[in-house]
Design the sequence.
């Protein structure tokens, strides 16, 4: 579905993403995890056209999209959300989502009707006429998702849509995301909420300091020593292993 | 529920359309009851300010690109009319579409150069101001545009030459232009292009992520805005029959355009019209009451602008609730 090849970008002296290659399989929920500042959102920026890679290429459905503008990439079937939600604050929820729907629907009335359908799909049906600026953080995350979804993407990039939500809101969001996958949309997500990722994702990459350090099924990745080190600090993996052994002995 | 909303939307749209029609009819009937040249002139100048305000509103209010140099389009429209009539002997009615097209073309030029490099906010405002100044200096130096002396068009007093013998004729011409500008704003409120333009205003990155070609949408807005502003310039020339670089490209016109839109309410259909009416009636009233204080109407404008920006950021239309 999405293929990144040897992507690299630097910001001054900082190598934000280095030589990252990955292939998001069609019809699955895949996730990219990593500690703060690892380069996750930068990688999203690179594949969605907001940043131009210094090296490497990106292909969507077998087509080279490296260097295309974000709007052109969206038109080809890849939509993204932003980690820091960016609603059209002074417009209603309905109008916000309709902007996405307009990508494939020139008629105003039909775009607004489509917005209503999508809003219900993500649980915003009751807030259609509220201003986007009046939504809670959970509402805004849903709105991000709804707008992207309204463009009828084949591939959806979700940048931390679960971050900042309380456990109940996370629990409500999980079936929504699964529902998208079941409807045929490939999902590629960045996530901080580990537990949720382990529930949702069918394949996981781990990035740290701009480089991929592990990949595989969620349970494989979480037991990888390098992943534990990246998250919890140097030496932690060894200590945990020792502790486990001693509890096993006891 | 969906159908109910759609119907509601359509009713709101029709109501605005009816309001535009009612306004056009009411103003059109005015000359039948009012014969005072002073009053008719006040109405004409108010309509004229409303047109300039709406032109600015398309780009600034709907598109969020605050221009401080809309005179560049106004002057281009006025000079195009003047040069085509005096140097090429073209009929005014034929020159008008050319003037509008040139206004749009200058819009595309200014837009392409500034949006291409991502100029926003005060940087965009400054670059538009600079463009207007450049055009003023050019007009001041070319013999083609009459240089510093300007151009006077001969008095013909015939509707066939877009010079009307009576004030009513000018009022009808101005009314047609204002009505057309209101219809453009009305269309922006209920079309895909309008939705895209307002999305770009509220958040460019989000708009781009949703497939909106931000550059092209902005370019469209500045072209429409430029054409409407050029229409204002064309009217000015036909009404006063004289143009010089300072009138055409000076900052006063740029300020007049943004003032009506900001006072009335940016991004609304009726805001610029309302703003123009309030400003002109207030200006005339203070001028009448304080005859011995020259420029007092400008002081009133300034105070009003400060008060509006501080207490009514959505303009007078903000008093009526939701953006309409």
Sequence:
């Amino acid at each position: 579905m999405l293929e990144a090849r040897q992507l690299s970008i630097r910001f001054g002296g900082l190598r934000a993403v280095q030589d990252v290659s990955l292939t998001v399989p069609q019809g699955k929920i895949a996730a990219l995890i990593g500690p703060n500042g690892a380069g996750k959102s930068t990688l999203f920026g690179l594949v969605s056209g907001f940043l131009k890679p210094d090296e490497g290429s990106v292909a969507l459905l077998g087509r080279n999209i490296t260097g295309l503008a974000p709007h052109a990439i969206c038109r080809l079937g890849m939509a993204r959300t932003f980690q820091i939600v960016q609603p059209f604050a002074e417009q209603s929820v309905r109008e916000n989502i309709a902007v996405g729907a307009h990508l494939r629907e020139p008629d105003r009335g039909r775009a607004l009707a489509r917005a209503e359908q999508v809003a219900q799909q993500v649980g915003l049906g009751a807030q259609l006429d509220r201003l986007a600026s009046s939504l809670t953080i959970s509402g805004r995350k849903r709105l991000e998702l709804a707008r992207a979804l309204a463009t009828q993407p084949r591939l959806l990039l979700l940048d931390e849509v679960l971050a900042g939500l309380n456990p109940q809101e996370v629990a409500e969001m999980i079936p929504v995301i699964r529902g998208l996958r079941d409807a045929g949309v490939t999902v590629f997500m960045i996530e901080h909420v580990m537990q949720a990722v382990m529930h949702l994702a069918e394949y996981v990459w781990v990035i740290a300091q701009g480089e991929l350090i592990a990949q595989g099924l969620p349970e494989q990745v979480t037991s990888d020593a390098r992943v534990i080190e990246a998250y919890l600090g140097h030496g932690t993996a060894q200590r945990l292993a020792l502790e486990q052994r001693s509890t096993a002995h006891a | 529920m969906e159908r109910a909303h759609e119907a509601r939307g359509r009713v709101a749209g029709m109501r605005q359309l009816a309001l535009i029609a009612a306004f056009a009819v009411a103003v059109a009937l005015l000359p039948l009851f009012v014969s005072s040249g002073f009053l008719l002139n006040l109405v004409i100048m108010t309509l004229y300010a409303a047109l300039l305000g709406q032109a600015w509103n398309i780009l600034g209010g709907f598109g969020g690109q605050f221009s401080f140099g809309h005179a560049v389009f106004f002057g281009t429209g006025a000079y195009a009319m003047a040069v085509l009539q005096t140097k090429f002997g073209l009929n005014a009615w034929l020159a008008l579409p050319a003037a509008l097209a040139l206004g749009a073309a200058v819009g595309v030029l200014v837009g392409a150069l500034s949006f291409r490099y991502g100029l926003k906010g005060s940087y965009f405002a400054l670059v538009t101001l600079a463009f207007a100044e450049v055009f003023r200096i050019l007009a001041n130096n070319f013999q083609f545009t009459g240089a510093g002396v300007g151009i006077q068009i001969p008095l013909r007093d015939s509707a066939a030459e877009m010079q009307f013998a009576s004030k009513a004729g000018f009022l009808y011409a101005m009314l047609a232009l204002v009505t057309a500008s209101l219809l453009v704003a009305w269309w922006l409120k209920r079309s895909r292009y309008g939705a895209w333009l307002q999305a770009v205003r509220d958040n460019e990155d989000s708009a781009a992520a949703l497939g909106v070609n931000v550059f092209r949408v902005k370019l469209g807005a500045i072209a429409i805005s430029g054409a409407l502003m050029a229409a204002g310039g064309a009217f000015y020339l036909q009404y006063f029959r004289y143009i010089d670089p300072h009138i055409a490209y000076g900052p006063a016109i740029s300020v007049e355009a943004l003032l009506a839109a900001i006072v009335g309410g940016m991004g609304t259909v009726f805001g610029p019209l309302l703003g123009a009416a309030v400003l002109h009636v207030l200006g005339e009233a203070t001028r009448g009451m304080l005859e011995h204080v020259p420029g007092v109407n400008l002081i009133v404008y300034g105070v009003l602008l400060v008060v509006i920006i501080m207490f009514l950021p959505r303009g007078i239309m903000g008093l009526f609730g939701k953006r309409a």
User: Anything to note?
Assistant: The CA atoms of residues 63 and 154 of chain A lie 14 Å apart. The mean pLDDT of chain A is 90. The interface with chain B takes residues 48, 50, 69-71, 74-75, 79-82, 86-91, 94-95, 98-100, 102-103, 105-109, 111-113, 116, 128, 147-148, 150-151 of chain A (CB under 8 Å). Chain A is about 40% helix and 25% strand.
